[in-house]
Design goal:
Layout lengths: L9 E7 L4 H5 L8 H7 L38 E2 L20 H8 L7 H4 L8 E2 L6 H8 L1 E3 L2 E2 L6 H10 L88 H7 L4 E5 L2 H6 L29 H6 E3 H9 L6 E5 L13 H16 L7 E7 L25 E4 L7 E3 L3 E2 L1 H10 L22
Length: 457
């Protein structure tokens, strides 16, 4: 029986980065994890010719160089990255892994999840997992509800999955130059380049990839049309991105922000490092903050253009979140995005620092006067290229993609509960729509739940 949403007056969504469920919570008791995958045999990876690999390919880092921290002949199975002989701890960044729209679909392979190693540009690293029991968020998952069938809203990477949190939609760029478009076959499958290695052991595959689909949808990272953007501003307007460098055009689809505002439900998107990135371009993708432009979906929408009242009201810095939290004045709906250095993204951030940051925020929220009527959802935007063995539900062209962790924390959440209900990122929007009686967004999926099974009756 679904739980009761009515007592919840404040919703906080905390959105981390790039971890599959198995990667962090594969050893969680009672969850569908590594033990289940091993018992069923649903872990063996295939080569690009369809044959079962004898060993996993090497772990590659940038420029296809083998990472010496990893053995080069690991068995074809998932492995602990934080145990001997590797001993790469939760406090150490791993190499990054490809996590793009077409590649994620090839890796999922119709639900068999057997092409992760063959497609990954980091080789065997895709099969790595941690003992997450050292993480403070693991302990919160033990106390509240861990959803173990929660999937990323869209195939691929952070850019598209942030849009699916914001609007359950895929952005468009109909007149994008051909240089930005992916090349696909008649079935919509990404084409390989002629120089792509035939076998996974010989190197990562090379695709004729792009940010835009042949029919004009933006599915991989595009830069924002407004600052902060990695594209520098034109000489006549420092608030914009130079249009000659092809930022994504301003989007006009209906977002969850639109539907909340239409019902006078207060909301804000809080972003760690927002003000610093606006003041100092050196913080964009670099510096102390490592501000990730493509993690800020509302900065791509015309309604929130520089100078608008909606931008001033709804797009805020992470420090504003702390101030509003401390004052007991969080809006009815808060989205919080950690700064890059604390978001857990492989390559430039470690797991532990980000997990501790989120757990600290949860502790502050629990001490807030708003806590007694609050629901917190802690999840990740996408899997970051890491393998997971559970087949995503089939819904539409855009997703859902691979399984990711999600923890529901609230005085009204079931205690010490593993929720096996099928959810995806749009389940958050579904919950908000039902709780606040909003106009439903067209892209929200019928095949997923609305988080209510995580709540007490």
């Amino acid at each position: 029986m679904a739980g009761n949403m009515a007592p919840i007056q404040t919703v906080v969504v905390i959105y981390g980065e790039n971890r599959s469920f198995n990667n962090l919570y594969g050893m969680f008791p009672g969850a569908s994890g590594i033990e289940e995958a091993m018992a069923s045999g649903a872990y063996q990876q295939k080569d690009r010719d369809g044959s079962v690999m004898q060993n996993l390919p090497p772990v590659w880092k940038k420029h296809d160089k083998i990472d010496p921290r990893f053995p080069t002949q690991m068995p074809n199975r998932p492995f602990r990255v934080d145990a001997a002989p590797i001993n790469l701890g939760l406090d150490t960044p791993s190499p990054d892994l490809v996590h793009r729209f077409y590649q994620n679909q090839i890796q999922i392979d119709g639900g068999k999840n057997d092409m992760f190693a063959a497609v990954s540009d980091a080789g065997a690293l895709t099969m790595a997992y941690y003992d997450g029991s050292r993480l403070p968020m693991w302990k919160l998952a033990q106390q509240y509800t861990l959803a173990d069938h929660f999937f990323m809203g869209a195939f691929g990477g952070s850019f598209l999955n942030h849009f699916w949190l914001a609007c359950a939609c895929t952005p468009t760029y109909r007149d994008a130059p051909d240089s930005l478009r992916a090349k696909t076959d008649a079935d919509g499958k990404l084409l390989l380049r002629a120089d792509s290695p035939a076998h996974a052991a010989d190197g990562p595959p090379r695709y004729q990839d792009g940010a835009i689909t042949p029919d004009g949808y933006a599915v991989n990272t595009m830069q924002a049309p407004y600052q902060p953007s990695f594209i520098t501003p034109p000489a006549d307007n420092p608030a914009l991105a130079d249009i000659s460098k092809h930022p994504l055009p301003p989007q006009t689809q209906t977002s969850i922000g639109d539907t909340l505002s239409a019902k006078n439900i207060s909301w804000k998107w809080y972003s760690g490092g927002w003000n610093r990135a606006l003041a100092d371009r050196k913080q964009i993708y670099e510096g102390e903050v490592k501000f990730q432009v493509h993690h800020q979906p509302f900065n791509y929408f015309l309604r929130f253009a520089p100078g608008t009242a909606d931008r001033a009201e709804h797009l805020k810095d992470g420090d504003d979140f702390l101030k509003d939290l401390a004052a007991g004045q969080l809006p009815q709906v808060s989205f919080y995005k950690p700064q890059g250095s604390l978001n857990e993204h492989p390559g430039y951030a470690d797991v532990l620092s980000g997990d501790e940051h989120i757990a600290n925020l949860v502790a502050r929220l629990q001490a807030s006067p708003q806590w007694k009527h609050m629901l917190i959802v802690v999840t990740y935007d996408e899997n970051g290229g890491f393998w997971d063995h559970v087949a995503p539900p089939k819904a539409d062209r855009w997703g859902p993609g691979s399984r990711i962790p999600a923890i529901i924390i609230s005085p009204y959440a079931k205690k010490s509960f593993v929720d096996h209900t099928t959810y995806d990122t749009t389940s958050i929007l579904k919950f908000l729509t039902k709780r606040f009686d909003l106009t439903p967004l067209p892209g929200v999926r019928a095949v997923v739940g609305d988080l209510s099974n995580a709540l007490i009756d």
